[in-house]
Amino acid sequence: MVVFLTIDVFFVGIYAVAGVLKAFDLAPEIASLQLNAETGLASIWNYGKFMAAIAALVMIRRREGGVSLLILTLLFLLLLLDDYYEVHDHLARVVGERISFGPLSSLHPINRGELFVYTVLLVIAAPSLWFALKNVQPPSRAFVGAMVIGVFLIGLFGVGVDVLHGVLDAMLSGYSDLVGKIFNRLMTIVEDGGEMVAISLCTWLSIVRLWEGRGA
Asked: Which parts of 38-140 fold into alpha helices (H)?
C-alpha cells in the first residue's frame, strides 16, 4: 500500500507544483500532468490499477466462487470502462442541455447532467452492493465488506466531490479569475486525488486477498 500511496502523492504533488508555476507564469500547463486528463499520466496509472484489481478479482472469483465477487468484478469493469471512455461525462453533457428548472438552472449544463446521471448510477449501484453484502460467502465476507467501503470512497470523491465542485463553482462565479483558478485546482486535488487513493486501496485489497489465498 505504501508503494501505491507514494505514487499517488507524487502525481498530486506534481499537479500542485505545476499549478503554482503556472500561476506565476513560470511554466505552461502540461496536459500529461493533469490529474483529470483522460490521457494524463495519473489517469493511465488509475487504468493500470483498475486492470490489476479486475484481474485479481477474476482469479479470486474462480477460486472462491459466489455472486458477490462476480458483482464486484463487473462493477470494477464498468468503472474502468466509464473512466476510460468518460461515458458519464458524455451523458451528462447531453442530459444537462435538456434539463433546467428550479435550483438546477443556476448550474452549468454539465453539472446539471452529472446530478441526473449520478443519481441513476446510485440507484443501480447501491442495491447491487447491498445484494453483494447480503449474499457473500463466509470466506469472502471481510474482503467483500472492505471492497464495498472502497467503492463507497471512490463514489464519494469521484461523484460526491464532483457534484459539490460544480455547485460551489456556480456560487463563486462572480469572484475573480484567480480565486476561481485556485478553487478549481484545490477541488481537483481533493476530487481526483481522493479518488486515486480510493482506487489504490481497492487494488491493494484485491492483490492482498489473492496472495493470502494462493495456497487454498
From this structure: 41-64, 67-85, 87-96, 109-134
